[in-house]
Amino acid sequence: MAVQRIELGRGDLWKSKAKALQLRLRDRFRVVVDRHRRRPHIFSAASDGYFSSTVQRWLNHFRDFRRDSLHSPSAFYRKRVSKDFNADEESVIIRMVQSVAVPLLGNMCHVFMHGLNRVQVYGVEKLHDALLHRPKNKPLLTVSNHVASVDDPFIIASLLPPSVLMDAQNLRWTLCASDRCFKNPVSSAFFQSVKVLPVARGEGIYQKGMDMAIAKLNSGSWVHIFPEGSRSRDGGKTMGSSKRGVGRLILDADTVPLVIPFVHTGMQEIMPMGATLPRIGKRVTVLLGDPIHFDDILGAEGDENISRGKMYDAVASRIGQRLQQLKVQVEKLALEQSVEFQQAAAGITERAADMLQQVDWGSFGAGSHVSTEERDLPCEPRPSQELLSSDRYFRIGFSYDSIIISRMRGYMDSTELLGFAARGLFMNFRAREHTASIRDVGPVRAWKQFLEANLLGQWNAC
Questions:
Q1: What's the confidence (pLDDT) of residue 339?
Q2: At 265, which helix (H) or strand (E)?
Q3: In CATH, what is the architecture of 92-337?
Q4: Domain residue spans in the chain?
Q5: Angle, vertex CA 293, rays to CA 292 and CA 297, nearest 5
Q6: pLDDT at 2 (0 to 100)
């Protein structure tokens, strides 16, 4: 019994020692963990180390500078652009290319608009006066509606004489989306050579492209912009609202530019959506308005209760309202022109019909094809609106199937046109007494007799 108690006591003793060792190890590990947690971080301000405190102080200064100097994406502010902002963007080679490419493209578009189409411009002297006689270093900003992808340069070229188009330095700068005009190196080089600045969609009004446009205005240049931001999707029937980007161009420039608005209609017929080549034989009407002033908005620039964003919106809204007014007027002028054009075409048709009725067709060998009833027929009806607006209509108002040609076809059979021409030429060189016999001669024989009597005779005489 005594031996058994001693063994049990030794077993309890070893268990107690193992438990005590376990408790001591646990406590020691817990102490180590707690000390590690309480250790000061290298970037903590409570650190006693010189390096950690210095780095933390620098980080705090950087956070304060970033918070005080940078604006949030939703905030609007005035961002000034220095005059040498884009000095590295234009090398001597680019300027030389622009001096050749801009006049060449401008004159080609001018010939296309005024030679192959019909353009009527109202108030063009306002743009010429602003372009040629504005004060020195006074920037010029033109705004217009956007209907077709070729509004610029076709409309701009149609408003200027060729002598002005030769001066590439004083011609306009314009903006174009980078994903449309600057997709590859070739297109980028072309649009850069014709004075186009890239802008990125979705990057807001404080991007580099807008800064470059403001830099051009600060140097006294001419910038053209479409306030809608994109072209109309319904063929120019409606006009979108003006974006606040145009407000930034006006308010953030060092000198408030001279703003000239104009609206055009008819370009949707020259370059419809989806077309790859422009069409000819169309009528375009352009109306230029008076300069837009923003003195009242500029007077409220120092008011703390008016945010910068509201000022941008006020400028854009005023421009949009003016363009809407001009759009109503230009559509009215285009409708009046269409009515006058129809009346003029109808008058030409009537006069041509009267002249044809007074012709002595018998002297030309076509008397058998003209009856008294046909000569007494009334004038042909006026051409319909569909005919006037068709693609086959020329600028002067005659189509390929015009009234004159159709009336001539009514006087004679198309199979005898050759005989009619031969008899007419032959009669001019023969006596009147042979007219009856000549009418009985076929067309081939008539041509043969004409050649033998005139050309062959002259050759034999030589």
A1: 86
A2: strand 258-265
A3: 3-Layer(aba) Sandwich (3.40)
A4: 2-69, 92-337, 355-461
A5: 130
A6: 46
**Can you state the angle between helices 185-193 and 92-115, rounded to 10 degrees?**
80
CA-nearest of 453, 447, 123, 409 to 264 is 123
Beta strands 283-288; 258-265: pairing state: antiparallel
Contact 278, 271 (CB under 8 A): yes
Report pLDDT for 441.
Answer: 56
Which tens digit of pLDDT belongs to each residue from 158-198? 999 999 999 999 999 999 999 889 999 999 999 999 999 99
Q: 251, 206 in Cβ contact below 8 A?
A: no
For the whole prediction, is pTM greater than 0.85?
A: no
Question: pLDDT at position 368, please?
Answer: 44
Phi, psi of 258 (to 5 degrees): -85, 120
Residue 302: per-residue pLDDT:
74
Q: Which of 160-174, 279-293, 337-351, 406-420 has the lowest mean pLDDT?
A: 406-420
Torsion, Cα 342 343 349 352, to 10 degrees, reads -140
Supply 458's token pair.
Answer: 């002259």
Measured CA to CA, the distance from residue 39 to residue 389 in angstroms comes to: 87
The residue with tokens 């010429």 is 128
The DSSP line for 314-347 is: HHHHHHHHHHHHHHHHHHHHHHHHHHHHHHHHHH
Write out the two tokens for 313: 């919106």
Here the tokens at position 438 are: 């000549």
DSSP string, 2-41: HHHHHHHHHHHHHHHHHHHHHHHHHHHHHHHHHHHHTSPP
- In tens, the pLDDT along 253-302 reads 999 999 999 999 999 999 998 888 999 999 999 999 999 999 999 888 77
The tens digit of pLDDT for each residue in 37-58 reads 555 544 444 444 555 677 777 7
CA distance readout (Å), 108 to 16, 77, 124, 164, 271? 106, 42, 20, 13, 16
User: Is 192:148 a contact under the CB 8 Å cutoff?
Assistant: no
The Cα-based distances of 94 to 97, 100, 192 in angstroms read 5, 10, 8
Distance CA(195)–CA(99), nearest Å, equals 10
Give the β-pairing of 196-199 and 258-265. unpaired
